[in-house]
Write a structure and sequence with these properties.
about 350 residues; alpha/beta; TIM Barrel; 14 helices; about 10% strand; binds S-adenosyl-L-homocysteine
Length: about 350
């Protein structure tokens, strides 16, 4: 699909036309990655962060936030829960936290890989090359790093550089070379994001040939520059992408069409906009993955990248039961095993059932 056509879809408001787009995305999902919905157990291992991203509640400048970092035993406790619940993957995520040191994390990865069958996904921000090399050698399978926007000017406005200017695209390419399955993605409706640039984001998903793509609505956090004064960032009204539920479905559907075999989650940010049915609608409009939260209750509320996160008060036990039930009642299957990239295996047989 050409960029202009993508922009037209992003601007489309007629419900009947959008239903066509969603139907096509759902059919593409079914043919390419099948009916299984893979569960990735998310463990938010630290909310400490050295960066100052203008939208994120974990930013270093948010001094009022109580910080935590889980120790290895706590993390391994969550990993055991993941196996008990039948998940095939754990995702370890954090702020960019150099208190998560290279070798202790490598040791933890080796333990998870030797004691379980789980795939291990890391999402620790822009870590130095040496860390990425060592963790891959320790057995980490996948790495998630959203590029957030392909618009270089907007990117630099909302990501103050640390030492050198960051180049997430270069890191993503490097992760691929190291043999990781590579995930990236963007927020939808960040102040300053235009329809053009969002269409270019989706084109970049395809160019990067990603294994995993996470897209979710931007949700303002009041203790951040972007949450406090969005007007300083907004694009002209007719160009600014809204951070709505509908826009999220459009992007999910277009992403599935652009990258038919990618693993695409129906995100918590989307469920936050519609707690009743957002996850399911995401799964019906392109997504094939969900990420139940395994973070211990005492830390959950502190991993506040945006406020009002869906299911914040739920236990890990209830999250898994609820998601399983939702998947089955949609007539889909719960995935088994690690559910790795479909790009690396033959396409599933088309079922007519
Ligand atoms: N430190 C890691 C993990 C960040 S949290 C990293 O930088 O990759 C994971 C994702 O949450 C981010 O990539 C971002 O896209 C999303 N996020 C952060 N703040 C958000 C907000 N206010 N609204 C919606 N999504 C947000």
């Amino acid at each position: 699909m050409e960029k202009n056509e993508m922009v037209r879809w992003l601007r489309e408001e007629r419900a009947a036309r959008l239903e066509e787009l969603y139907r096509l995305a759902d059919e593409t999902r079914r043919r390419n990655v099948g009916d299984e919905v893979h569960l990735r157990g998310l463990i938010e291992i630290s909310n400490c962060c050295v960066r100052d991203c203008a939208y994120c509640g974990l930013r270093a400048g948010h001094r009022a936030l109580t910080r935590y970092r889980m120790n290895a035993e706590e993390i391994l406790g969550c990993v055991r829960q993941a196996t008990d619940y039948g998940y095939g993957t754990v995702v370890l995520q954090s702020g960019e936290d150099y208190g998560i040191a290279t070798e202790p994390m490598a040791e933890l990865i080796r333990r998870v890989k030797s004691e379980t069958e789980l795939a291990v996904t890391l999402s620790f921000g822009e870590r130095p090359d040496e860390d990425l090399v060592r963790w891959r050698a320790a057995g980490a399978d996948r790495y998630l790093l959203r590029f957030e926007t392909s618009d270089a000017k907007l990117y630099s406005q909302i990501h103050p550089p640390r030492a050198a200017p960051s180049d997430r695209i270069a890191i993503l390419r490097r992760l691929g070379e190291l043999g990781y399955e590579v995930g990236s993605g963007v927020m939808i409706g960040i102040p300053g994001q235009t329809y053009e640039s969002l269409a270019e984001d989706i084109e970049l998903f395809r160019t990067l040939d990603l294994d995993m793509i996470g897209v979710g609505p931007y949700l303002p956090h009041p203790n951040t520059p972007l949450g406090r004064s969005p007007a300083d960032f907004l694009a002209p009204e007719s160009d600014q992408v809204p951070n709505t539920e509908e826009m999220t479905y459009k992007v999910l559907a277009l992403t599935r069409l652009a990258c038919p075999r990618a693993n695409i989650p129906s995100t918590t940010a989307l469920a936050t906009l519609n707690t009743a049915g957002g996850r399911e609608l995401g799964l019906r409009r392109g997504a094939n993955v969900v990420m139940p939260n395994l973070t211990p209750s005492k830390y959950r509320a502190l991993y506040e990248i945006y406020p009002g996160k869906a299911c914040i008060a739920e236990t890990a036990e209830r999250c898994q039961a609820c998601l399983r039930q939702r998947i089955l009642s949609m007539g889909r299957k719960v995935g088994s095993g690690p559910g790795g990239s479909a790009k690396r295996r033959p396409a599933p047989a088309i079922s007519t059932a």
